[in-house]
Design brief:
The chain is mostly helical. Helices cover 87% and strands 0% of the residues. The protein is elongated and about 50 Å long. Keywords: Membrane, Transmembrane, Transmembrane helix.
């Protein structure tokens, strides 16, 4: 499963970048709490999936 997930590394990086951009957009507007929450969620999911893929890949190589 981790090897299949590793195929989408580029998408995880893009998800993280989009999350950061959403956070920046939320700072520009006055009533943009939804952008902030969505940005934080996107960054957490993107980084979490990247870490999961990297750690899972290391474990598979050791075995």
């Amino acid at each position: 499963m981790i090897t299949q997930l590793a195929r989408y590394t580029r998408h995880m990086i893009l998800l993280t970048i989009v999350g950061i951009l959403l956070i920046l957009v939320s700072q520009a507007g006055s009533d943009s709490g939804g952008f902030l929450v969505t940005g934080i969620l996107a960054v957490v999911v993107g980084v979490g999936l990247l870490v999961l893929t990297i750690v899972g890949g290391r474990r598979q190589r050791r075995q």
